[in-house]
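Lab meeting, item 3. Inverse folding demo.
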């Protein structure tokens, strides 16, 4: 990996093998942990997936006979 200047910051490019193993795509969040002098680990930050899973756990079924009518909803 090579360190590059990006605005006022420094950036590293991740090798394709790391991107593939971590299943990363543009916009994903990652965490970098310093393990020792001159060594670090990269891991995928799963906050988005954790939030989606928490929302899925909140799902409740609709009451019996519930019908959603868009026109009725707009009239309210």
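The presenter then showed the designed sequence:
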């Amino acid at each position: 990996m090579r360190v590059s200047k990006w605005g006022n910051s420094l950036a590293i490019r991740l090798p394709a093998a790391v991107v593939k193993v971590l299943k990363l795509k543009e916009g994903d969040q990652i965490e970098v942990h310093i393990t020792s002098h001159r060594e670090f680990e990269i891991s995928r930050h799963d906050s988005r997936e954790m939030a989606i899973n928490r929302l899925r756990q909140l799902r409740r079924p609709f009451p019996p006979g519930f019908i959603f009518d868009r026109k009725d909803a707009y009239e309210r």
